[in-house]
Amino acid sequence: MNNLIATDESPEAVRLMVRVYAYLLLAGFAFVPAYLIGYLYFFQDPTLIFENHLFHIVAITTATLAGSFVTYVTWRCYQSSGDPLLRWMTLGFLGFVLIYALHGAFTGQAHHNIWLFLLYGPASRLVMSILLLVGLLSYHRPPVAADQRMKARPWLTWIGLFLLVDVAVAYVANSPIASNLAVRLSMEGGALVLSTLTVTILLLRRIRSPLMTIFIISVTAFALSSLAFILARPWNHMWWLAHAIFAGGFFMLSYGVVQAFLTTRSFSKIYSQEELMVRLAEAMAYAESALQELQRTNQELGHLAATDPLTGADNRRRFMERVEVEIGRTKRGGAPFSVLALDLDNFKSINDRFGHQVGDDILKSFVEKCLDSIRPYDGVARVGGEEFMILLPQTSLEGAHEIAERLRSTVANSSFHGQQRSTVVTVSIGVSQSGRDGDTIEAILRTADQRLYHAKHEGRNRVVTTFKTSLQPMP
Ligand SMILES: Nc1nc2c(ncn2[C@@H]2O[C@H](COP(=O)(O)OP(=O)(O)OP(=O)(O)O)[C@@H](O)[C@H]2O)c(=O)[nH]1
Questions:
Q1: Residue 98 has pLDDT above 60, yes or no
Q2: Where does 11-269 sit in CATH, by number?
Q3: Coiled coil located at which positions (predicted)?
Q4: What's the average model confidence in pLDDT over 203-215?
Q5: Whether the CB of 343 sits within 6 Å of ligand 1
Q6: Interval 144-172 mean pLDDT
Q7: Which sign does the torsion angle of CA 318, 324, 328, 334 carry?
Q8: Sorting pLDDT into bands at 50, 70 and 90, what band is 48?
Q9: Torsion angle, CA of 408/413/418/422, rounded to 10 degrees?
């Protein structure tokens, strides 16, 4: 099981270096747009432009459609998990789509009313950066209650607010302050500052889950796209690059949303691989201990199912199974085995004289004496009220007779104590041997029973083997 979970045997220094390298890779990846911005800023003529309205409209329409779809998927995730971050992300995407769409719609106004064309871009990015920041601040808060998630009113209110922003932007674009650089810069700069703040908080809070790593990289892209927009002029390469950087961040974040949708539907409850490995190791350790417990319980149940509850001796079923095993062994050329059939004498009168409880105690003591007289791999079974059987593997009839005689004598010479009174107990025993007395379980047990009956008939307290009796005086 340990092979599945790699226990870390690498030195701490190596682990540290690998971690640092992983962080450098992520940072290097997150800052790819920065290299491109730097390249264009230092090596490209900023007056070079690519003004293609159709291309712009197609690009913004694609972004709007993709954004609408991502908004819907994010909303579904939120409805399912109630993760507060997803609520704010849904609103962020929704606000972005409802405002940014007009940036595409007014492409044709680029030469008539440049601000109506331009201002929807920074406004959409500002709104989205505000909502993502608020979302981050709600990270790891408890899920929103199911009935709250379903309410349509808050969503409609937000849609109304976004449409108000659309109207406000149109108003500003048509007002004299529209051409003031501060208007555009305050929105784009605001988006840059808020996105940078979001990334800083994420890093300071050391949030490391896989989806939040995607979140960090995406918001870094949003911040860098705002920077590129600030450095750009409409239609120049920096301006197009700014669009592309934003689109890259957006698509990456939507990839995170898709991953959430396909797994836990939550951004917060996606674990890093390290966390997953720890959780998996814990779950496997738990499963292993549960399995051991189950095996123990099964063994106990198996033992109980094969045991007589009063005396602890095997029961008849278990005894038969063991005799079958011995028959198999003798058939494969093993030494013969013998069987003793035992019955306590006049047990009814013991019960009558001393009571049933004393009778029970005597039965238990009798089994203990049997166990003391036989080898560990021999077996004692209770097959009736005061009837027992003993299996003696690899034992001839003569050897079995000796053991039976020893046991009979031990029992007859012992005092059985019950309720402070002692009594003498005797036992009659019939002996049979596999091969000599038959090859089947029925034949061998029947012969032992017949000899036991014979022992009773002959006067009890005796061992009968091959119908020769070893007579003992009655006590
Ligand atoms: N105390 C007690 N007595 C039991 C138990 N099972 C059976 N007995 C009793 O064992 C007695 C068996 O009586 P019988 O079959 O007449 O045989 P016996 O009195 O031993 O006489 P012989 O076998 O002919 O020597 C009955 O009185 C049963 O009630 C038990 O679990 N506990």
A1: yes
A2: 1.20.1070
A3: 277-307
A4: 89
A5: yes
A6: 96
A7: positive
A8: very high
A9: 150
Q: What distance in angstroms lies between residue 344's CA and the mean position of ligand 1's atoms? A: 8
| CB 133 within 8 Å of CB 196 | no
Answer yes or no: is the C-beta of 455 below 6 A from any ligand 1 atom.
Answer: no
Q: Quick check: helix, strand or coil at residue 380? A: strand
| Residue nearest atom 13 in ligand 1 by C-alpha distance | 348
Helices (H), 306-355: 316-331, 347-354
Cα(359) to centroid of ligand 1, in Å? Answer: 9
Residue with tokens 């007859």: 412
DSSP label at residue 440? S
Give 148's Cβ-side CA count (13 Å radius).
Answer: 9
- 439's tokens: 């090859």
Q: Pocket of ligand 1, candidates 311, 315, 346, 347: which has the most ligand atoms within 8 Å of its Cβ, to mutate? A: 347
Confidence band (pLDDT; 50, 70, 90) for 473?
very low
Q: What is the mean pLDDT of residues 48-75?
A: 96
Pocket flag, ligand 1, residue 452 (CB < 6 Å): no
* CA–CA distance, 351 with 331 (Å, rounded to integer): 43
Q: Among 409, 44, 86, which residue's Cα sits nearest to residue 265?
A: 86
- Helices 32-43 and 12-30: angle between axes, nearest 10 degrees: 50
CA-nearest residue for atom 32, ligand 1, is 360
pLDDT tens-digit series, residues 246-269: 999 999 999 999 999 998 888 877
Residue 216 φ/ψ region, left for φ over 0, alpha for ψ in the -120 to 50 degree band, beta for the rest: alpha
Q: What is the mean pLDDT of the chain?
A: 92
Tokens representing residue 95 in the block: 């606000």
Position 337: which residue type?
F
pLDDT exceeds cutoff 50 at 369: yes
Question: Which residue, judged by its Cα, is nearest atom 28 of ligand 1?
Answer: 348
pLDDT score of 420: 57
Pick 309-462's CATH classification: 2.30.110.10, 2.60.40.4070, 3.30.70.270, 3.40.630.30. Answer: 3.30.70.270
Q: Which amino acid is at 351?
A: N
Residue ranges per structural domain of the chain: 11-269, 272-304, 309-462
Which atom of ligand 1 is nearest to 460's Cα?
25
Tell me the ipTM for this assembly: 0.96
